[in-house]
Structure to design on (860 residues):
């Protein structure tokens, strides 16, 4: 790409940046937690439509994806799970195609009194935009969209097909991205601007979610000795799961990408609920666990060990021995994925193009990083032979209180993305 | 009392027993859990009214009781907390007066699939009536009412005033019984047919309820090491509370009534809730604790130690040290009570009268028992100088699944109660 075009694209990003921040702020104001993404998706669809993209909005149909590799089990129906894709069809089709992917779903805000300002009333302060989902990952959606806008502002369109995806379900299953694959959206590369501090993600972990349902023997607490407390029965099981977590993290079990990390795999007790009455020995409890696995680690083997650990521990409990825990898989069934293991020409070229764009936008070499989370990249990389580049702005406190995203970082990512598109896809006249 | 009258009263109980079981069944069908007692109370009021008792139904007003000894703090308002008292005013007033007390509130049923039949569709099988609240303590309410009916069937009324109380809130605060005291209901003795297997309760424990609110430092679980899990932070605190429980139960701390019991004081983790999202380190958790204390043990001292244990343990947690748990008292603030320590003439006479009635009804001597629960007896005994006799039928699985009450036991209790009333109050012509 000519230096002149790089400059023009960066200038166009600067030119449009106030609008981009306003867009991000508007998008972050939608409380698009799981099941509540529709209004945010309608906003995205309107924005794409206004720009002339070919629009495809559809409700995810489990029947169309449940047989596919990468599918994660869900407890609820998908009545309100709407994906939005805006397509640009290149007239010349001389360049490579690209998926620009981002997720619209955000995690719950948690107790509102622990936020300095309301999570869905975004505010800008000292160069940061605060709000739930601002970083994870609405800034990425904004970056994708305004990078394309920058090309348009230069009188150009990508010289290959672009599929702009705003998907649901990234935070719990990935079934939104999977549904895009199932619907036929394929390209030569994918870019996902998840908020990893302008680093290129070279490897990501797999994630398994499961619930453990425990029963107890309820009695009046006056006779607690004759009962079996379903809440406290969880504690040794949780301890045993943490022991398993330590084993999985042992040096000899780490693949090269994670060799330097003592504790890449985190087991999280994310939710718990149990009991109905303070003076009754609780009859039930349920806790929700997230456990990570390494790229290459088998989900089935991991599940087998998880189940063994839970049931073996339960058998040490006089009551649970005869009333074993129920293990319910209700979300992520995600394999790990390592872009670094993709030896294809497309992968090498895409990384090189991004590296170059990043250097121009930031003045720094592109840092490679193996992350301890999962992203939707796995669907493109593992199940569609598409190198998936995860590369997005710096954010802080994602999933926490006072989540915030660095707006100058979003500006740099947007510039790098615009240049990457221009390079990867080539350009044609609007 | 003449043998002839005893026989007639027992015969009248037998005569009315089918109606009594039908009444108990109808009453048990009302799902009168906390906040949902109104329809059951309306039923009780109708039954009392139809029998000619002077009716007093009123909503508990916290302002009228919160300054009184024995008051327990509540989190909710009392918009729907209705007490029902039916009074019989003796024409001759030659005998002693009596409060017949029972509570209408029942504890939650818990998961319905763990019941053999629906908890609020009572059924009779092999001499047991099954249903939530059938034993604890609607059979007692039935026994009180049908004992009075037996007198009436003999053409008699009690020769002293009778205050038939159907109260709310026994299962969480006792504020229903307290409100009866505050409204002026006083008598020479009280009888509460709680389901303790036809034994006379000579001592009961105090009970304190508290909630522990914990905060955490939420992060994306990918960075769990930087977060602080509010759910798992509960575990060491619960362990420390159990250590405290062991100390309080130590032989040297037991009063004479409980000297033979290794573990009279039970600490129960009855409820827990925490976290919003499986892949977020949870920012909050709350657990509910019931702890018992011995008669004579100070509530304030107990609370001081509970708070010390919780806060000391929290200070060992790097995050909680700077974000200490909040301890909320939201129910029982109940002192222990020992009828056995009541050296009044009324107490001795009431126990003797009950002993005699019990022997006649059952053929056995009255067994005395110190129980590991609390009852509303404390209000009469501690705050109104009224000996309170807790004496009711045999029930099983109270607060558990498939709660049931022994109908023949209810029959015996009803007979004993009828004879006790005849003896204690004397009789007059209807």
């Amino acid at each position: 790409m000519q230096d002149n075009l790089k400059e023009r694209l960066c200038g166009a990003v600067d030119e449009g940046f106030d609008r981009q921040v306003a867009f991000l702020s508007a998008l972050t104001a939608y409380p698009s937690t799981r099941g509540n993404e529709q209004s945010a998706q309608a906003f995205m669809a309107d924005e794409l439509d206004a720009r002339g993209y070919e629009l495809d909005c559809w409700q995810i149909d489990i029947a169309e994806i449940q047989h596919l590799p990468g599918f994660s089990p869900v407890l609820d129906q998908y009545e309100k799970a709407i994906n939005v894709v805006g397509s640009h069809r290149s007239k010349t089709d001389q360049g490579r195609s690209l998926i620009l992917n981002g997720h619209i779903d955000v995690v719950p805000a948690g107790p509102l009194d622990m936020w300095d300002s309301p999570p869905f009333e975004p505010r800008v302060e000292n160069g940061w935009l605060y709000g739930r989902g601002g970083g994870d990952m609405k800034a990425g959606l904004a970056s994708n969209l305004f990078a394309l806008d920058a090309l348009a502002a230069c009188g150009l369109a990508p010289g290959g097909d672009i599929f702009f995806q705003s998907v649901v379900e990234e935070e719990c299953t990935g079934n939104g991205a999977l549904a895009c694959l199932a619907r036929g959206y394929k390209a030569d590369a994918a870019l996902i601007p998840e908020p990893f501090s302008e680093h290129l993600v070279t490897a990501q972990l797999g994630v398994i979610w499961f619930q453990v349902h425990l029963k107890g023997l309820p009695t009046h607490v006056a006779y607690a000795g004759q009962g079996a407390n379903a809440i406290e029965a969880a504690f040794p099981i949780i301890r045993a799961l943490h022991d398993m977590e330590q084993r999985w993290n042992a040096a000899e079990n780490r693949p090269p990408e994670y060799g330097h990390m003592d504790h890449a795999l985190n087991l999280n007790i994310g939710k718990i609920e149990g009991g109905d009455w303070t003076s009754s020995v609780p009859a039930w409890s349920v806790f929700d666990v997230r456990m990570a696995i390494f790229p290459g680690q088998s989900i089935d083997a991991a599940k087998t060990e998880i189940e063994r650990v839970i049931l073996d521990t339960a058998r040490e409990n006089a009551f649970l021995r005869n009333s074993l825990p129920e293990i319910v898989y209700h979300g992520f069934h995600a394999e790990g994925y390592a872009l670094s293991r993709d030896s294809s020409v497309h992968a090498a070229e895409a990384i090189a193009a991004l590296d170059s764009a990043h250097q121009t936008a930031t003045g720094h070499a592109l840092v490679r990083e193996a992350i301890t989370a999962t992203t939707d990249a796995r669907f493109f990389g593992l199940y569609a032979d598409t190198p998936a580049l995860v590369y997005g702005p710096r954010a802080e406190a994602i999933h926490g209180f006072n989540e915030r995203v660095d707006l100058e970082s979003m500006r740099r990512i947007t510039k790098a993305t615009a240049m990457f598109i221009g390079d990867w896809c080539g350009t044609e006249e609007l």
